[in-house]
Amino acid sequence: MIDIQDLAKAFALGKNSKLSDTEKQDVRYSKEAFHSVRNVSFSCGAGEVLGLLGPNGAGKTTTLRMLSTALKPDAGSVLLNGVDVLKQPVKARQQIGFLSADTGLYGKLTAFENIAYFGRLHGMKEDALKQRIDELFTLLNMHDFANRRADNMSTGMKQKTAIARAVVHSPKVVILDEPTTGLDIMTVQTVLDFIKGLKAAGTPVIFSTHHLDEVASLCDRVVVIDKGISAFSGDIGQFRALTDNGDLRDAFLSVLNSATNQQGAA
Amino acid sequence: MWQVYLKELTELMRDKKTLIFVILLPIFIFPVIFGVMGLVLSSTTNTAMQAEHRYVIINAEQAPKFADALFYHKNFKQVKTDKTSEADLVAAIRNDEFDVAIVIPADFSAKRQAVEQSQWQIIYNQSSQFDFMYRYFAEVLGNFNEQLQRDTLMQLNVDPANLAAIIKPVDVQKVDTAAKRENIGEKFGAVIAYILIPLCLLGASYPAIDMGAGEKERGTLETLLICPISRVSIVLGKFFTVLTTGLVGALITVGSFGIWGAIIGSFAGMAVVQEAMSAIAITELILIFSLLLPISAVFAALLLAISIYARTFKEAQNYISPLSIMIFLPLVAAMMPGVELTTKTALVPIMNVALAIKELIKGTADYGLLALIFGSTLVLASVAIGFCVHWFQQEKVLFR
Q: Best mutation site among A36, A121, A129 for testing chain B: the one with the most B CBs within 10 Å?
């Protein structure tokens, strides 16, 4: 169970940084700071998959980075199974698995070593670690390249290794930042199957994406972020109901339009 | 922290570039330097000393004894010319017809008779680095002058027993207190520091770039940051890895310096190197290494801070190049003539270590100052590490 309330994050701007014309039109820019995320709230229960949608630069990655404790929010709260992420970041980190499309591996280390390194950083004991890695290798069909260095792997192998690395410590929640962007079809399928597996195991998954077909086939809940504000948060049925024909693309656009209109009115 | 350290070290050991910079370069740079130093120095001096100078002598008949002495000198070879004017002689020397012209005035013997001073001329190119020719000429002329003085005094009926005291009333005997080692250390000690210190930086820079900017570029940094270990542990783990490679580089460098110095010194004709090396004991090598230790820590912390700030490998390299140039400034300052190790210079970072290495090689090190240098560099290192740790907790540095 993840519960996020009124999250906000601003990045200070350099004194001499000049804003482009498009940036000047963005309401989030002030003289001193860029308010990347202004007010984001949503929640995701056990076994639910939450899709985070939004245009480029809307604040999705910043939101996910705050969830994963990489960034500290300026305001708001993140509760992870009752643990306050902001107050106990180290405890929260033990429960989080994180992966993005450009998450890399250490090229000089083998698949096993890459995964084991993160397992050890998560404080896993050697026996438990070996057993868990063996489990994951079987699950993801990775035994063939367990001892191959990441530099010599195909993209698919790398992504499988990255997935195994993200869940080696059996996280209570998995956060994925555009996990399929830039990957080939086969590799995308590996990622999607992995999300389905997590869902079946009752692990909540939050992932950001630009692919509405992924949302349609996987998500129970949808959140749309626009200009740093969660403009829509609800289940997939409510999202479809935003338009008469139930088309996700139209629903997405209508959320963005009404958000812009509201801001214009304000 | 040690998890991070072990993993970084494993990765580095599997990397060929690290091996080249940290191990091969220090091993092979010294034989080259010693070889060049010994060969070039001894051979150029020898050639200059043994060179034969072609000369012309105008009005030789005015001073036949001098002309003969010059004629039989092994470094002079007479050539014939019909030129007599100064301008013609200068032109001929420029045209490489001969190397030197000695012009004796036509009225020389007449002036001798009247006991008057005579003005001779020697025309040659004075830009040469080793002016052995003039030294030989002066020697021959000195003897000639002395002979003339003796002749004149004899004519004046001076007692021959007093001649030596009249011609040269004061004779000076030079007693050198500098050991040969001090002399050589003064010349080459700074050069050794000039090589050792940048090698420490070089050995540490590639791993540092790989561990900061490299981690950002590969997209592994974010995953590392959300592991349940503190950022201080991550930085320290990385810092110790960089420090280790810097020190392994320095250790290999110092070791290779000692070993190759001894090997090359044992070759015939490399007496210069042998003399310099024979006096340097293991204690001094250990002291040199222990001075390199804190300065390597400073380098490691600075490099890591730069590397974490940079977004990509290339960006990090761009920032590190000016840093390496900055490091050469104090090193060059330490090589300037007259710059000595004092309480003041002992507090100038990098320069103090360079000067101390020079003193150690000369064998004249003041242990109090060495302790001061070690202490001050250690303080600098802890400040640098502190900054690096602080830097690593800044979001604006990590997510640029």
A: A121
Q: Tell me, which fold does domain B53-167 have in CATH?
A: D-Maltodextrin-Binding Protein; domain 2 (3.40.190)
Per-residue model confidence (pLDDT) at position B380:
94
CB-defined contacts A:B, below 8 A: 73
Give the nearest chain B residue to A119 (CA atoms): B227
3-class DSSP assignment, residue A176: strand
Which domains are delineated in chain A? 2-95+172-265 (3.40.50.300), 102-170 (3.40.50.300)
Range B273-284 average pLDDT: 70
What is the Cα Rg of chain A in Å? 19
Residues B313 and B305: their CA atoms lie apart, in Å, by 13
pLDDT, tens only, A118-153:
999 998 999 999 999 999 999 888 999 999 999 999
* A262: CB partners within 8 A, 6+ apart: none
* ipTM (interface predicted TM): 0.84
Q: What is the pLDDT of residue A168?
A: 93
Chain A residues with CB under 8 Å of B398 CB are 70
Q: Amino acid identity, residue A231?
A: A
**Crossing angle for the helix pair B351-362 and B313-335, to the nearest 10 degrees:** 50
Which of A71, A105, A122 is opposite residue B220, by nearest beta carbon? A105
pLDDT reading at B81 higher than 80: yes
Does this model's pTM top 0.90? My answer is no
